[in-house]
Design brief:
The protein is built from 8 helices and 10 strands. By secondary structure, it is an alpha/beta fold. Strands 3-2-1-4-5-8-9-10 form an 8-stranded mixed sheet, with helices on both faces. Strands 6-7 form a two-stranded antiparallel sheet. The longest helix is centred in the last third of the chain and has 16 residues. It is globular and about 45 Å long.
């Protein structure tokens, strides 16, 4: 299996590349600068244990074309729509996994949702109904992802309008040894994406004794 991570040279993209490659999934990092992506891919490969899958680096177009089915979008929200508009022709037949959160430009403790309601819904509206968009991995700390000695300390809420695509993405993310939950259609992304700035606020607060926290769904003990 080969997946693409667009915006893969950023902290979250790099962390996901490491995690998926260690789990045996070949990763192609996508960037506007293909040479930079190749350089980062080489640096990441040096951090992986023996037996991990390959990490390669290409420009966004080539990376998207190289993906067999899953393309993960990890760009800043300011580049979200433009990236999708440029790549829409080569996304046909693939599933877009949108992990982007529309954080406020001047304050990551706030969220500024687009008119569609969420980044996930904006992507689906832009790409049209024939390219399924699944929102996932919004609430995971990039620092946690990049430290392979740490277990991912949160559950993953997954949403999107296609149930079949949702199940496929859940199976993909399960490879990271996390608990995934089917959160429903794309409208649920309005809630899920909005959790991220709340976590950021807690993680940088001096009033709490932790950083890099995530969220978990706890079953009752009765």
């Amino acid at each position: 299996m080969t997946i693409a991570i667009l915006g893969g040279t950023g902290p979250q993209g790099q962390g996901l590349a490491l995690r998926f490659a260690r789990a045996g999934v070949r990763v192609v990092l996508g960037s506007r600068d293909g040479a930079r992506a190749a350089e980062i891919a080489s640096e990441l490969a040096a951090k992986l244990p023996a037996g991990s899958a390959e990490i390669a680096g290409m420009d966004n177009l080539a990376a998207t074309e190289a993906a067999e089915e899953f393309v993960i979008l990890a760009v800043p929200f300011s580049a979200h729509n433009a990236t999708l508009e440029a790549l829409k022709p080569v996304l046909e037949g693939k599933i877009l996994v949108d992990i982007v959160v529309p954080l406020a430009p001047n304050d990551p403790k706030l969220v500024e949702m687009p008119p569609e309601g969420s980044a996930t819904e904006a992507a689906q509206a832009l790409l049209g109904p024939d390219i399924p968009v699944i929102g996932a991995l919004h609430n995971v700390s990039a620092v946690t992802l990049n430290n392979l000695e740490w277990k991912i300390n949160c559950d993953i809420l997954i949403c999107g309008n296609s149930l079949d695509a949702r199940k496929k993405v859940m199976a993909l993310v399960d490879k990271l040894e996390v608990q995934t939950y089917n959160a429903g259609n794309a409208q649920a992304a309005r809630c899920i994406e909005a959790i991220t700035p709340i976590l950021i606020r807690q993680n940088i607060s001096k009033a709490v004794p932790f950083t890099h926290a995530g969220i978990k769904i706890w079953a009752p003990d009765h």
